[in-house]
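### Sample
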Amino acid sequence: MQNTIPLTLAAAVRRDPANPLLTFYDDASGDRTELSGATLDNWVSKTANLLVDGLGLGSGDTAAVTMPPHWQTAAILLGIWSAGVEAATTDPQSADVLFSTPDQSTTTKASDRYATGLLPFAMPLRELPAGFADFVLEVRQFGDYFPGAPVTEADLALNGRTHAETLAAANGRAAELGITPGRRVLFDATTHPDPVDWLLAPLLAGASIVLCAHLDRTKLDSRAESEKVTLVVG
């Protein structure tokens, strides 16, 4: 049985496609975005289709992601892995495509570059940096269904680690953080920026995610109650 991130996502969606899988808060902007498993999977499929059909990328290629924890970051990373492409979050210089926020100054050889403002309701940017396409506008042109790519556990997934190695790290982090099946886990995006923590560990463990950017800790108790959070990872 292959142990890959696309299979992990498929299992998470299959368990409960209608209920929230990832809920995102930004206490600086007031944004709250809730994605069911099915909705997140649609964004993932669109991103994978953009990479494969739009850019012709696949196994052996690399996508740089220089974005903070966010629901769009989750969709982009999972789309990259579904396409069989490696994600680079620490060294974007040799990437084939770049996903970034407009305030990032990133050195990369990638000729294809996508920017997103991480705005509420996935709104497009008013002004694009030179040489960038708007991710949320471009990705919407692609289909909600991705037929899959031939991804194996030996393929590179994240910063030089294979799918098997990345999921093993996520399994270890789930154990360390106390993430178990059925839990609803709140993450402070500032203290847990690694997608192995805030994205892959709960997906692999069978938990759902409440991801909070610019967390106002005076709201923590009420948010945990309203979101039915059973574990706070702060």
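The chain has a mean pLDDT of 95. This sample (TIGR03089 family protein) is used throughout the tutorial notebook.
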